[in-house]
Each structure stands twice: as C-alpha cells, then as structure tokens.
Task: inverse folding
C-alpha cells in the first residue's frame, strides 16, 4: 500500500499528480478533523492512499467509459429519487448517506457533473468548486460533529468508488476508527 502526505493542499494537484499517477487503479483522499476524526497533527493535511484494494470498500465497480454518464446522484439532484437534504446552494448538494458508516454520514456533490465522475477528472478551472464542496462538507461537520469528523473521497476501483459522480463523504458523531492500511492501524 502507498500512503502519501502531499506537500500542497490542493485537491486538484493531489488527485492528478499523486493519486492518478501513482495509483491509477484507485485511491482515497482523507482528511481527519479533531479527536473523533483521529487527527493528531493540528496542521491541516490530506492523506492519499492507494496501491491496492483499500480497507472499508464495499462493491468494486469499474469507472464508466463516459465520465458524463448519469448516475443515481443525478437523479437525486433532479429530485427523481428522494434524499434527505443537509445542505444546498447554487452548486453543491449535501444529503444523508443511505447506508451510514457512522452516526453522521453525509455526502456532498456538485449539482452539475460536468465530467466530474472522479476526483482525478477535475480540471484547473474546477479547483474553486472542489474547495467549495470541501468547505461545505467541513462546515457541516463542524456543526453536526463538534468533537471531530473525517472527510474522504473515493476515486476509482481500488478505493471502492461505486457512484461515478464526484462526492465527498463526511462521517462523524462518534469516535472513528484509525485509518487502516494493509490490516494495520496507522496514526494520523
Ligand atoms: P462511494 O462508495 O462511491 O464512495 O460512495 C457512494 C455512497 O453513496 C455510498 O456510501 C452509498 O451508501 C451512497 N448511496 C448510494 N446510493 C444512494 C442513494 O440512492 N441514496 C443515498 N442517500 N445514498 C446513496
């Protein structure tokens, strides 16, 4: 397994220069926040993990050929499939995950897909949108999970991405487990 602490806090760069290049079959970007999120170093940082099928993956689903292909999340944004809203603005929608992994488990997505099937597909012109989704998720975490939370993004097969419409998970509301790599716990 590979786990890189990238130098620059830029999701777009992390995804393209570390994730996709080093782990073409999939990677996970993870940010631990506060005690419940197992943060130990209080200097904001991203973890990028990959190089094998990661722990806590569900089904393994290959990416679609067409990054603009509709998914269940397009139907959720359109209101064709019901969801429980936790956040909404012009460009971002947040809702409760149907299969929560923790007391709070919310998913944040861009309302317009625009080719964003995976984090690695983000272009420089979408940097601001990525930051906005991340901040929306973090503000929600701060409000719902004041003791800490974790934000993560699954990109691709090895990370267990099942819905190919970029999304950020926010989990918290309880003490989360340490991140595991190859069966072993790793400290933040
Ligand atoms: P991924 O594994 O792709 O990173 O995450 C997809 C997430 O979407 C999963 O946590 C899954 O439970 C959630 N999900 C899938 N289908 C639905 C749905 O129809 N409604 C809601 N609210 N969540 C869903």
Result:
């Amino acid at each position: 397994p590979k786990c890189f602490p990238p130098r620059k806090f830029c999701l777009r760069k992390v995804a393209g220069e570390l994730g996709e290049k080093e782990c073409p079959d999939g990677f996970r970007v993870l940010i631990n926040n506060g005690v419940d999120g197992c943060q130990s170093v209080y200097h904001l940082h991203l973890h990028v993990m990959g190089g094998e099928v990661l722990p806590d993956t569900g089904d393994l689903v290959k990416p679609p050929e067409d990054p603009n292909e509709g998914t269940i999340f397009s139907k959720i944004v359109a209101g064709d499939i019901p969801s429980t809203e936790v956040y909404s603005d012009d460009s971002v929608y947040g809702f409760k995950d149907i299969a929560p992994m923790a007391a709070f488990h919310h998913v944040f997505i861009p309302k317009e897909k625009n080719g964003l099937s995976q984090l690695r597909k983000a272009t420089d012109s979408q940097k601001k949108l990525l930051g906005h989704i991340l901040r929306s998720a973090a503000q929600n975490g701060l409000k719902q999970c004041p003791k800490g939370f974790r934000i993560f993004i699954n990109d691709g097969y090895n990370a267990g991405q099942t819905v190919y419409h970029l999304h950020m998970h926010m989990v918290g509301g309880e003490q989360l487990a340490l991140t595991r790599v190859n069966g072993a716990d790793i400290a933040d």
